[in-house]
């Protein structure tokens, strides 16, 4: 997957997830289904996912064992930054634990699933090129 195509699909995906969250908040006002400062966490996870993908993409382009190290390293760094984000958020705000866990985990796994899908598309393309060379 070319980087420009990823940016386009990522923009559509991010807008889609954001619109779903916005309409959930709009459709159930006063219910507290979204945590305070939800959009800050949404933005942080979106940026971390984008940076992790770009680093992984550069590693795949470089090839060899570095591609695996780059992918695993970027996913690990994203996980660690998200854990720090959770710690800072929970120390700063008092929220319902179930609502926070639902909001954060759904965002984290949605963005991670999209990142892994995009990386697999890159690896599938690389695998097809290897088969054609033999």
Walk me through what this model shows.
The protein has 134 residues and is mainly alpha-helical. The chain has a domain at 38-125. 86% of the residues lie in helices and 0% in strands. The chain has four helices and no strands. It has helices at residues 3-27, 38-62, 65-92, 97-133. The longest helix has 37 residues, at 97-133. It is globular.
Instruction: Please trace the helix and strand order, writing H or E for each element.
Output: HHHH
Low-confidence runs (pLDDT<50, min 5 residues)?
none
- Please report the total strand number as a whole number: 0
User: How many helical stretches?
Assistant: 4
| Shape, per Cα inertia axes | globular
Cα distance spanning the termini:
22 Å
What integer is the average pLDDT? Answer: 87
Work out the radius of gyration. Answer: 17 Å
Largest sheet: none
| Sheet/helix structural class | mainly alpha
Oligomer: single chain
Helix content estimate: over 70%
Strand content: under 5%
